[in-house]
UniProtKB/TrEMBL annotation:
Species of origin: Salmonella enterica
Protein name: Phage tail protein
Length: 80
């Protein structure tokens, strides 16, 4: 089958739209450089970069738990 016939098959089954969408998609090689609003993206995936907390009373408040497995050097902080 010649190359043109194969290309026509792709167009006929609607792959042209898929190709166009993939061309405009975020690229892994950009490492997030093509994310237009990085703060909003971080909040959307649950990786809030900062937060404000207001308490009405004085005293001690538990606002986070820090977990750091001994085998790693990564700390996991869970905010309440």
């Amino acid at each position: 089958m010649p190359f043109q016939a194969i290309l026509c098959i792709f167009i006929n089954v609607g792959l042209r739209e898929t190709i166009n969408r993939a061309a405009g998609a975020m690229q892994k090689s950009q490492n997030g450089g093509d994310i237009p609003d990085k703060t909003r993206f971080a909040r959307t995936i649950g990786a809030v970069t900062s937060t404000s907390v207001t308490f009405g009373d004085s005293g001690w408040f538990k606002i986070a738990t820090v977990f750091m497995p001994q085998a790693t050097s990564t700390a996991v902080i869970k905010l309440y």
